[in-house]
Amino acid sequence: MRDTTDSIRDGQPGRRLSWPWFLVVVVVYAGIIQGLGRLVGVDTSYSDSAFPTTESLVRNALIPIGASIVFAAAVVTWLGWWGEVLRYRAPVRRWVRWVPISMIALALLGLNYGHLSDQSISLVACLLLLGVFVGVGEELMFRGIGVHVFRRAGFTEGKVALYSSLVFGATHLSNAIGAGAQAILQALIVSTSGYFFYLCLRVGGIILLPMLAHGLWDTSLFSNLVGDKPQASVGMALIIVLQVALIIVLLVKRRTIEPVPAGVPS
Hints:
Layout: H1 19-40, H2 54-79, H3 82-86, H4 98-110, H5 113-117, H6 121-152, H7 157-171, H8 176-179, H9 182-204, H10 208-222, H11 234-253
Helix pairs in contact: 1-2, 1-6, 2-6, 4-10, 4-11, 6-7, 6-9, 6-10, 7-9, 9-10
């Protein structure tokens, strides 16, 4: 394991963070969310809903995730990586643009508008804020810090995408504290989503695009799970279908993601 240093090495600005130390950072990050959630959270076992009330959403999600954003931002600041984290230069072929386009379009289409219209304004507002928090916090940690840790370590783009996505998925195993074995399946699904968000970063060249896609994606899913009575929708099914479709497409076309030499059609 290589220690972080204040020096500039190999033309890379800021401190150095080895991937084993990044895993330590991720453990602390997950610990903040789970620990603070247990400390300030409220019991919702009486309901089938993830967030039956505005108070439960604020205390069980917004406060812990907000604290994790502060932690992730502090790590980026300490590393001196803001310029690098905000922008990512690794172009892809044109067809990959359909990944963020389809994710954002389906997330907007899949929002359970009817169910949300039955909820209080405060609950809906906090849900939208939760989407922002999740998109900013998780993308800053995994497509921000994580991707650059593996890239600086000299891994190929394929391995950068794979390893950062696996760590992203594995972090959600911490949800086993409340969800049990179901968290294992969630971690596998989240790993594939992490790869899609990585491609959003590649397409946009700026971390704001995966933040937007991620935030809308989770908001759409959670729009079915708020209020006293959760309510599934056709939109939720469409999101699941898109996830499966993207997995199949990327398995088939994974070797044609990287850009081709100039003059060759993409």
